[in-house]
Amino acid sequence: MKKIFQILIIVCGGLLMNSCYYDELQEKIIPELPTDPDDPDYVEILFGTDIQPIFTASCIGCHNASRNPDLREGYAYSSLVPEYVIANDAASSRLYNKLAGGHQNLATDKITLIKTWINQGAKNN
Ligand code: HEC
């Protein structure tokens, strides 16, 4: 009987120690391009030519009239700003956080463009 308790204690102890190990939900580290116009490397990211094509290629199959945000050309900007995008604050923007969290596995360089566009003021440019 004693032996059974001993085994139980060892097994439970083992489980307890193991439960201390967990995979942290690691957000991807997303680089950012310069957002200060005085930076010599500053390049303005344009919604029309840099951002919309990402949505058109990767998102509008699902995000159209039937799912928010509507990312079709002509609808995307007003669907996103201000509900999903807070100008100059990618870290607080649902669009950015969703993508940085791995939604649809969008490539990091594309998330970088979206992050930079938001932190450059999220203009309809
Ligand atoms: C295969 C379908 C599919 C594709 C492609 C897709 N999404 Fe989504 N998306 C969803 C679904 C379903 C949800 C709602 C469930 C969830 O939040 O994950 C969602 C949720 C979201 C949300 C949060 C909506 C809210 O109201 O909180 C955002 C932002 C978003 N998607 C952006 C995008 C962007 C940007 C792309 C393209 C890079 C994209 N999605 C591609 C299916 C898709």
Report what the structure shows:
By secondary structure, the chain is an all-alpha fold. It has one domain. It is built from 5 helices and no strands. Helix 2 (47-58) crosses helix 5. The radius of gyration is 22 Å and the shape is globular. The chain starts with a helix and ends in a 6-residue tail after the last helix. Heme C is lined by residues 55, 58-59, 61-63, 68-69, 71, 84, 94-95, 98-99, 103-104, 106.
**Domains (count):** 1
Integer average pLDDT: 87
Largest sheet: none
- Attached small molecules: heme C
Topology at a glance:
Blueprint: H1 2-19, H2 47-58, H3 76-80, H4 94-100, H5 108-119
The protein binds heme C.
Keywords:
single chain; 125 residues; mainly alpha; 5 helices
